[in-house]
């Protein structure tokens, strides 16, 4: 199973759970984009060494709002997250 297969399976699971998909939406974020940033970024981060890194992935974080906002997503569907995320 490739990384993209795992990513697709994870995304399918999460999107079937309405509560998980609603949280970013309530905060004005595109749920697909937000979960995509989480699933791609967290495994690469060193949050197990520095728990404060997780704060940068919260839906209230300004950089996350910039990257994943519903308005931003409509304008740039293929936008990449900032390098610090």
Secondary structural class: mainly alpha
Mean pLDDT: 76
Secondary structure: number of strands: 0
Number of domains: 1
**Contiguous runs where pLDDT drops below 50 for at least 5 residues:** none
Give the helices and strands as they follow along the chain: HHHHH
Query: Residue share in helices?
Result: 55-70%
Q: Count every helix, treating DSSP H or I runs of 4 or more residues as helices.
A: 5
Radius of gyration: 13 Å
Strand content: under 5%
Q: Give the overall form.
A: globular
The main sheet comes to:
none
Distance between the termini: 26 Å
Give a short summary of the structure.
With 85 residues, the chain is mainly α. It has one domain (3-75). Helix content is 55%, strand content 0%.
Keywords for this structure?
single chain, 85 residues, mainly alpha, 5 helices, 0% strand
List the topology elements.
Elements: H1 3-16, H2 18-26, H3 31-41, H4 62-68, H5 70-75
Helix pairs in contact: 1-3, 2-3
Task: Give an overview of the whole structure.
By secondary structure, this protein is mainly α. The protein has one domain (3-75). It contains 5 helices and no strands. It has helices spanning 3-16, 18-26, 31-41, 62-68, 70-75. The chain is globular.
């Amino acid at each position: 199973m490739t990384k993209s297969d795992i990513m697709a399976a994870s995304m399918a699971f999460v999107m079937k759970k309405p509560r998980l998909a609603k949280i970013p939406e309530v905060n004005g974020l595109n749920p697909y984009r937000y979960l995509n940033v989480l699933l791609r970024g967290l495994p690469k981060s060193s949050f197990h060494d520095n728990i404060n890194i997780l704060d940068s992935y919260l839906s209230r974080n300004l950089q996350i709002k910039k990257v994943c906002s519903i308005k931003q997503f409509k304008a740039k569907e293929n936008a990449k997250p900032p390098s610090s995320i």
